[in-house]
Amino acid sequence: MALSPASNLGPAVGLICRECGTAAELGPRYACDQCFGPLEIEYRFTRTEGAHPEITRASIEAGPRNIWRYRGLLPVPDQVAETPNTEPGFTRLVRADQLAESLGMSRLWVKDDSGNPTHSFKDRVVAVALAAARELGFKVLACPSTGNLANAVAAAAARAGIRSAVFVPSNLESQKIITTAVYGGTFVTVDGNYDDVNRLASEIAGEQEDWAFVNVNVRPYYAEGSKTLGYEIAEQLGWRLPDQIVVPVASGSQLTKIDKAFQEFIKLGLVEDRPYKVFGAQATGCSPVAAAFKGGHDVVRPVKPDTLAKSLAIGNPADGPYVLDVVRRTGGAVEDIDDAEVVEGIRLLARTEGIFGETAGGVTVGCLSKLVRTGQLDPEAETVIINSGDGLKTLDAVAPVVGPSANIAPSLEAFRAAGLA
Amino acid sequence: MALSPASNLGPAVGLICRECGTAAELGPRYACDQCFGPLEIEYRFTRTEGAHPEITRASIEAGPRNIWRYRGLLPVPDQVAETPNTEPGFTRLVRADQLAESLGMSRLWVKDDSGNPTHSFKDRVVAVALAAARELGFKVLACPSTGNLANAVAAAAARAGIRSAVFVPSNLESQKIITTAVYGGTFVTVDGNYDDVNRLASEIAGEQEDWAFVNVNVRPYYAEGSKTLGYEIAEQLGWRLPDQIVVPVASGSQLTKIDKAFQEFIKLGLVEDRPYKVFGAQATGCSPVAAAFKGGHDVVRPVKPDTLAKSLAIGNPADGPYVLDVVRRTGGAVEDIDDAEVVEGIRLLARTEGIFGETAGGVTVGCLSKLVRTGQLDPEAETVIINSGDGLKTLDAVAPVVGPSANIAPSLEAFRAAGLA
């Protein structure tokens, strides 16, 4: 399958290996021919001949209220916003004064990505993957997943009117099966764990040349979708960067792409070039990047995940080393907390700001608290944290510790006796 | 408890009885002194002396991207957007070409209110109730509920930093208890059915004078929040009204307030005055308004609900007669469908547009289909339907009919043998 000469992927001009720097033509490839390293998109944003139109604050502000306002910075066709899609993004940036006060901080914001169409940040990356995949000639949108990604792929394909094919471990909870199967695509349960499913997906991708596994063979395009989190934060702060940002780390891609977005905005002159610190957040039960950071290593040693924060449970994170680079370059840190602290993080965010985040949000809030307590994060500096998903999808995490204040008979006497007034 | 002279409820100037027309002063009251009929807000929108500033398209468009862009049309303080709140509204209006095609329609839109902070339209009404309740001097935000309203009240109060008190039947599923209790307010389970809980709430409201039960003693303010659905639809269509709109009917308030919003926009000159038809949608297992419409009656006879569309299961709908008025005045209809059609409606919306609605959404899609089939709704005229909540909260409805396409061993051979390529 070849990219046609008429292809339109916006400002994307090629691919480049993140390990050895070898260039490759734009197309349906994801690994370097020379060293098998991961490929990343190369752009041309400047106003030189043949380049993409200039990006300004005004041109962005004139765009739609979703991620496509940044289409000039993404590997997608210019007309992407006019093709049926789930229109993710431009989620709320919530000023979190009560959460800040409870942590002894001055100025804190929550980027609440539970507001996306299927209620996680995965709608962003899937939307970019879908747009690029169509342009690259793929016919089926596919993924291996255990949760949020499956929802996002099935919904996005349904909306776009193309086929989806989602592969999950067969022991997945029935709730998670329903929330994806309802969209009516091909939905396959596989007798094996997530690693088995992931391996099978790679094998199928090698055989079915018109299947785009978003997180496998179109990963370079897919991953760019996370840049939009960074763009939105900067724009919603009034075209400036925060002093500090705390990002949950699974594969590590989200953190590195937020940094990439900030760097692009600086280079394009859209925000002032000033220092910011990037912090990573993990659950101790799956904290290979935190362990490497704390040990002063450059290599991330794989672990076997054992945490209730399942959406972050990637034991061998592909972007782990790049997370270490960003965190060390900016003067941040990677922290981790145990599962009890994750649950406490979910509850604290809900009680103080009325936002019910999933376990990944609990990890971020809990790590924020620990970073402040341990003096690694400045409580006086402006800070943004990411809530990447919705608590409705991980009810089991809080079920053991959340319940009624009282149970009463249906009478005023019972109400008075319960001392609730 | 009296409204202070300094009170600021925007353009609201008084209360008026919907039954006998008796006027009452703006304040914490909800029933007419003369006839016990429901009170409704009176406004002064014109530019006469002492009235509220003029409302124009430009003044609205300059507002925030949430319901507070319409604050000049709501009984809330002018500074409402600056007080911490959940910022609901301005949810997506989705052009639904694939759903339209499957129903033989030309031009169909879905107003997808699952994008609200707690994923139902209740965030709108609760936000208005909260803003008015604070101005009226209430200290606690309360409600009887079995689901969406409980979520919305608990989240809104947490975000605002005030106490919530939510009352639910004690046999409620543990899932629904968790999704409200996580916000940390007072959460009381009551040994009784919803009617018992509702009655207890009224009794407590009579005794705890600083408790605002949003759907009881501040109902006149609360109900106005649904107007924002109508405002947004008109604005998002490019400042014009649709030809037809299909709205789910529980108490009937949402339908009557959308009509009120359209009428206000016409009177204010914000949209062209042209005919539109309003249709109501119910589940047959709780269809007192549809029965009255079909029987040609003015009185709605209460029923005992028996449907899986629990968020619509109000057997004695307070606004039922007003729904009949609106539907008959505009040339619409009220239709109902059985529970199997509700489930099919949920699946159809998910498969064609990637939107997973709750049972109320299934009712609306299913009734839309029936209205087209029976010739009551014009398939060529532009139509808007409301999806008022999120399928994640009513998984049980689709669980029996949704599942995997196949279960395979983790190998390419098994994948090939399953015939999925």
UniProtKB/TrEMBL annotation, chains A, B:
The UniProt record lists the keyword Hydrolase: no
Domain called Tryptophan synthase beta chain-like PALP: residue spans: 88-389
Modified residues (N6-(pyridoxal phosphate)lysine): 122
Gene Ontology MF terms: L-serine ammonia-lyase activity; threonine deaminase activity; threonine synthase activity
InterPro entries membership: Ser/Thr_Dehydratase, Thr_synthase-like, TrpB-like_PALP, TrpB-like_PALP_sf
Pfam families: PALP
EC code(s) of this entry: 4.2.3.1
Record has Transmembrane as a keyword: no
Cofactor: pyridoxal 5'-phosphate
GO BP terms: isoleucine biosynthetic process; L-serine catabolic process; L-threonine catabolic process; threonine biosynthetic process
Keywords: Lyase, Pyridoxal phosphate
Family, as annotated: Belongs to the threonine synthase family.
Protein name, per record: Threonine synthase
Organism: Actinomadura craniellae
